[in-house]
Structures are given as C-alpha cells and as structure tokens.
Known about the structure:
Blueprint: E1 2-3, E2 20-25, H1 33-43, E3 49-54, H2 60-65, E4 71-76, H3 81-87, E5 90-92, H4 93-98, E6 103-107, E7 110-114, H5 117-127, E8 137-141, H6 147-156, E9 161-166, H7 173-181, E10 185-190, H8 193-199, E11 205-208, H9 217-224, E12 229-232, H10 241-248, E13 252-254, H11 256-272, H12 278-289
Parallel strand pairs: 1-5, 2-3, 2-4, 5-7, 8-9, 8-11, 9-10, 11-12, 12-13
Antiparallel strand pairs: 4-6, 6-7
Helix pairs in contact: 1-11, 1-12, 5-6, 5-11, 8-9, 9-10
Amino acid sequence: MTASSADRPLRAAERDGPxxxxxxxxxxxxxxxxVLHRAAFAALGLDWTYDRxxxxxxxxxxxxxxxxxxxVGFSVTMPGKxxxxxxxxxxxxxxxxxxxxxxxxxxxxxxLADCTDIxxxxxxxxxxxxxxxxxxxxxxxGAGGTSLPMIAALAAGGxxxxxLASRSRERAATALRCAESFSLAADWVALDPAALTSxxxxxxxxxxxxxxxxxxxxLIGALAGLAPTLVDxxxxxxxxxxxxxxxxxxxxxxxxxxxxxxxxxxxxxxFTGRPAPREAMAQALAAATGAKR
Length: 293
C-alpha cells in the first residue's frame, strides 16, 4: 500500500511517555544520525532515546517486526534500504518509485516507509545552485542505492537527462529504470577515464554517489573538470579527493553533511509528528563535525 509522505497522519505525537528510535545499518558506529535526532528530541522537550543498532538487510525485517509500541521510528542506512521498503505495511509514492527507503515510521498496523534521502539530495543540489536544471543533463557517478534518490532529485529539479557512470552497465540497470520512470532520458558510460573523455559529455552538474576510495587518480582527473558544480554524498572523509580536485578547477562543491542534515528533517517529523527543530539540529551537527562541509 502506498501513502503520500505529505498527507499521511502522524501518530507518534499522540502517545504519552518516553519513546525510542534508532539508526539501523552495518557498519553503523560512524553514523551521525544520533547527533541529529537526539538534538531534535531535546529541542522538542521529548524524553526520547535514539541509538545505533548494527543490523544487516537479512535481519532487518524481523528486528522491526518485533519492536514494541515504544519504538517510533528508524533511520536506515546501507545495506538495509531495500529491505526496509519491503518490510513496511505502507510506503510513500516516492519510496516506491526509487525502490528503497531510509526511513521507517510507526503507524497503526506497522511501519510507513519513506525515502527522505530525496530531500537530502535536493538540498545538495540547491547548495551549489544546481537545484533547477530545466532541459539540462547531469552525470551521476555510481549506480547503487544512493544514486536512486539523486536521480529523483534531479527529476524534481527539471533536469531532462542523466548519464550514469558506473563499472558495469548490467549493475546500472536498476538506476537506468529509475531514471526512465521519472521521464529522464538516461544513458550509461563506463566509469573509465578514456570512456568519459571520449563520450564528450556536456553536463551541468556531477553527482558522486560512490565511496571516496572507489575513484583512482585518473578517474578523479577525468571527472573533476566535467562540470561547474559537484555534489558528493560523502561526508567522512571530507573533503574527498574528487572534491579537492574539482574545487581546484574552480567548481562549486558541496559534501554529504548537507544531505545528511536535510534528510533528517523529514525523518524527525515522521517520528515525532512535529515540525523539525532545524536550527537545533544544524547546530548539533556543526558542533559534532567542526562545521566541515
């Protein structure tokens, strides 16, 4: 069953007493989600807890099914985003379209799955002035789970086309279908310096959705000069070698902390039923990271 993320009734605020939430993933020790949501709960005057739980995709459905009513929600990171979508009783339209969920929020009868990563990706694009791309093409580096909300964000911004650069066309099939479902003209190019150069791609923005270690020096050199703007979903380590190289060539660059923060706002609202205390969350993240971007 699908539900609108904007219209779905929020139930958590109707309950009395302390509640629990957590981030699920593997590995999970590095996650900054507790910083954001604990700050939000404190700012809202809620005596709620937020923890990290090591959990892979196989374990996730049983874990969330066995949680009692004190649990109001989960942030979900890799490798559990596809499993989270499948485990939900209801799903937002946008989560269904991208095929993954980074948020599970308590509703009557189970869990609502949403993909607030799309909000984060849109904020990344906005931070470099690339939120609106009518009639333009973007290059998305990588075709894994994080590429899907980026594709949705590009479509929401009016981009007309996307090129996916990845190691394998076969592994890019899901991302290509996602782009086509959003009416984006989609093509694929090998993530290879020679292929990128020979393709002669003219793009408004490069969006990297791969780990920093996935790009060797030759690839970084080929990607860094392709567009006047770069968005990189990585926040640790930051800056990435690609971000440094693009900035040296004069590109506007923004990193993954912006995405992390902005995807958490809607999560907080789904968990609590209240407007997210954005300033408190942003200040907590800045304090925890030294305000790096």
